């Protein structure tokens, strides 16, 4: 069984846990303490409020342990606010974040009027059929480094990408019935 953590500080934690419970060979667990972070095979950083999660990473004394585990190859997937926390740079802002992926992101990039929307795309690396993409006050990627592979582009903006053991999506697969991205993440661990 693979122990897959969902970072349980703030945001859509139970939705990811529910999704993981449907997959074979996966033991989902909520994690927030240093010993728990040391014990998992992979971690999902959920959507929520990146400024709040960033502060709590420090309060719970797990920021440095997490950075260390990611540098040592632990697979990690950030959805929405999770993407923001993993980025090296946040456009025009400086909040506490992990700075482990060679991307620049813009928070709330779709503006207020388009705060939330849903679309469908084929993401060839992940699924041969269209999957639903739910965006909620979502970021997108403004810039990527050489080591980063864009996986999905919507309206000319990169909304999913991978750099080795790090996966990010602007959208929320845990709020849909489609488990393709969760399965893809589990395959990154196997
Ligand atoms: N759904 C989300 O995770 C929204 C992210 C949020 N707007 C932020 O900037 O942190």
TrEMBL record:
Cited SUPFAM superfamilies: Class I glutamine amidotransferase-like
TM region positions: none
Binding of L-glutamine, residues: 48-50, 107, 136-137
EC number: 4.3.3.6, 3.5.1.2
GO terms classed as biological process: L-glutamine catabolic process; pyridoxal phosphate biosynthetic process; pyridoxine metabolic process
Annotated Gene3D superfamilies: 3.40.50.880
Record-level Gene Ontology MF annotations: glutaminase activity; pyridoxal 5'-phosphate synthase (glutamine hydrolysing) activity
A GO CC term attached to the entry: glutaminase complex
Functional pathway: Cofactor biosynthesis; pyridoxal 5'-phosphate biosynthesis
Catalytic activity of the protein: L-glutamine + H2O = L-glutamate + NH4(+); aldehydo-D-ribose 5-phosphate + D-glyceraldehyde 3-phosphate + L-glutamine = pyridoxal 5'-phosphate + L-glutamate + phosphate + 3 H2O + H(+)
Residues at the catalytic site: 80 (nucleophile), 172 (charge relay system), 174 (charge relay system)
Pfam families found in the cross-reference section: SNO
PROSITE patterns in UniProt: GATASE_TYPE_1, PDXT_SNO_1, PDXT_SNO_2
Matches recorded under InterPro entries: Class_I_gatase-like, PdxT/SNO, PdxT/SNO_CS
UniProt keyword annotation of Lyase present: yes
Keywords: Glutamine amidotransferase, Hydrolase, Lyase, Pyridoxal phosphate
Domain of life: Bacteria
Self-association and partners: In the presence of PdxS, forms a dodecamer of heterodimers. Only shows activity in the heterodimer.
PANTHER family found in the cross-reference section: PYRIDOXAL 5'-PHOSPHATE SYNTHASE SUBUNIT SNO (PTHR31559), PYRIDOXAL 5'-PHOSPHATE SYNTHASE SUBUNIT SNO1-RELATED (PTHR31559:SF0)
Similarity-based family: Belongs to the glutaminase PdxT/SNO family.
Cited function: Catalyzes the hydrolysis of glutamine to glutamate and ammonia as part of the biosynthesis of pyridoxal 5'-phosphate. The resulting ammonia molecule is channeled to the active site of PdxS.
Name of the molecule in the record: Pyridoxal 5'-phosphate synthase subunit PdxT
Gene expressing this chain: pdxT
């Amino acid at each position: 069984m693979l122990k897959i953590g969902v970072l349980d500080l703030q945001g859509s934690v139970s939705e990811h846990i529910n999704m993981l419970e449907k997959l074979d060979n996966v033991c989902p667990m909520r994690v927030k303490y240093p010993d728990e972070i040391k014990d998992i095979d992979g971690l999902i950083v959920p959507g929520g409020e990146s400024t709040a999660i960033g502060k709590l990473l420090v309060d719970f004394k797990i920021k440095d342990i997490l950075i260390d585990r990611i540098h040592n190859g632990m697979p990690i997937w950030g959805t929405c606010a999770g993407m923001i926390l993993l980025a090296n740079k946040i456009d025009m802002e400086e909040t506490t974040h992990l700075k482990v992926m060679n991307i620049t992101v813009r928070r709330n990039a779709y503006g207020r009027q388009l705060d939330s929307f849903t679309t469908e795309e084929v993401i060839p690396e992940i699924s041969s059929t269209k999957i639903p993409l739910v965006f909620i006050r979502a970021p997108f990627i403004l810039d990527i480094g050489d080591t980063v592979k864009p996986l999905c582009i919507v309206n000319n903006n990169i909304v999913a990408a991978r750099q080795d053991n790090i996966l990010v999506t602007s959208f929320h697969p845990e709020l849909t019935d489609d488990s393709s991205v969760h399965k893809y993440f589990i395959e990154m661990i196997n």
